[in-house]
């Protein structure tokens, strides 16, 4: 009785746990509803192929959720307001319309308002069935975000061919750098039991146009390439196939030894070649549309061709030959070795640039956005634009390993956009990273954008509600690397929370500054790699010693009595020389370099004068504090949003913002305490001294930090 009474009094915004992501299809209410009701809720019969059945069901689900109408089936042309979906091959009615289908490309779609037998009809048409599914999601999102749908003339096609998630999921269901619970792959019960989450996962990704997923960690185990595990991957591939998603596997380079009984994994050895060819054949028997291999080789202790005196080209091409025309080999450029004393930022370029033009056509070199490692801010990787005769793919990190795990609110759209819009200048102005990635700069056909997934078993998938926005933004940018991340944020906020402009405007503003706020309190002015050792949680600017210098913070900040920063000019490591001359010259020139990258490229005295007129020391401290104040501002904005968000989600975001506030303060205090031991200067006026001693910050330990 009591429970029922409580339910009856429930507030208008019903509790939500975030599981529905941006696909909530909550009813359109009030006057906004009428135009949509007129535009149509009747869906014409659709050919019942696996993919078109999913598209049809999604349309019915969306319309009935949004407009409340029981979807009616009506023939196109039988009345106004019918929606017709399909391909020219599956629908004679669509074929008869003679639409400019080439505008839809291979995977895209057209959405058009047309007249059929004098009746207004909405057509969602594509050349391939998966394009119809993408078009259905787009159509529904128009209603979800309250845009008109009565005179549509949309054509959209992805600019990047392979739009992929990389899961760093282990076979025991832990997730390397995962902050959203266990891996969603319940390997133990596969292949016999397919958890319903797999189809939900595929649906969510298809709604963004993501068309590939690497199931297992780049730090991989050979076991995943044995028959029982191939069968498990095959069961997942069967679920994903109708959603247009291909399965890929990370391949451990030493597998010929570990599971093939060979004494070597030398890529030039005929037995090794035969092993991989047979392995590929075995996989293709189970997964006929297998996407291919992702390989981390000779990086951070992983095996690779260099173990045998062979090269990345030998390794990648050998695997590419084993796969043949059936798929691709994605070979990561994230390589560095502690035996190599040179600046770690230079090593990827130094190892790969000389091989430009040597890789097979079905090899893609996957390059992280920056030259170190997914830091809160990095200048774009110098390999972009430097290998015009090779397929170069982008690797972004969606999971926030270095950006506050799941509890810091940081919308990564602007970070991705910053890299994608960076101008390499290799072919003059406008040679942006986006144009390298979409292949247009160098006429490359095989194009890739990959994101390291932030998905786990948490009900809200991503560990926090706002981290869903990073998955969403990644997918949208993979479709169109030149899209505006402000527009993407606005769409996401509307889809996920509310269309009320009193919500959308402040929340989008908050999202757009959130990553800069985080940079301020973690690594202002181009500092990088200052986090805690190994788990990467919290500040650790004092981290030094241990197995390798380039895993320490002191290697990167080089703080001393004389100043702070990593000199990458000609006087230092000369990493600037890896960029096209005008770009490198600008980075090297204190008058030209953007202050946001200052200490990435320069080692400067504590008294160096910033553009503001402040000294470097004062500017550093005030930026840390500005970051903390920025989190306060986010907390205030969010507090005002309670009328527009259900209490459950509002409460979780509020709590996380409190965690973020405390940790931002900790970052600021610990960093100030540490750097002050070198600057030996007082804090600028009005700045509070850190409450604890440096030793106290250094002594903090976090043995159970997640993600390792
Ligand atoms: C680093 C992560 C590590 C990954 C590595 C990679 O800390 O867990 O294995 O990147 O990308 O940032 O291979």
Indicate the CATH architecture of the largest domain.
Alpha-Beta Barrel
Strand order of the largest sheet: 7-8-9-10-11-12-13-14
Biggest sheet record: 8 strands, parallel, barrel
Q: Helical amount among residues, as a percent range?
A: 25-40%
Structural key phrases:
single chain; alpha/beta; Chitobiase, domain 2; TIM Barrel; Alpha-d-glucuronidase, C-terminal Domain; 3 domains; eight-stranded parallel β-barrel; six-stranded mixed β-sheet; 14 strands; 36% helix; binds beta-D-glucopyranuronic acid
Short recap of the structure:
This protein has helices spanning 2-8, 33-39, 50-67, 92-95, 129-144, 196-206, 227-240, 255-258, 270-286, 312-323, 344-352, 413-421, 433-437, 468-479, 485-496, 501-522, 554-557, 581-588, 598-601, 616-639, 647-679, 694-699; strands at 42-43, 72-73, 82-86, 109-116, 119-125, 153-156, 162-166, 212-214, 246-250, 292-295, 328-332, 363-368, 391-397, 448-452.
Question: Overview of this structure, please?
Answer:
- The protein has 708 residues and is of the alpha/beta class.
- It has 3 domains: 134 residues, Chitobiase/beta-hexosaminidase domain 2-like (Chitobiase, domain 2), CATH 3.30.379.10; 335 residues, Glycosidases (TIM Barrel), CATH 3.20.20; 144 residues, Alpha-Beta Complex (Alpha-d-glucuronidase, C-terminal Domain), CATH 3.90.1330.
- 36% of the residues lie in helices and 10% in strands.
- Strands 7-8-9-10-11-12-13-14 form an 8-stranded parallel barrel.
- Helix 14 crosses helix 15 and helix 20 runs antiparallel to helix 21.
- The N terminus is likely disordered.
- The protein binds beta-D-glucopyranuronic acid (BDP).
- The site of beta-D-glucopyranuronic acid has 9 residues, from loops.
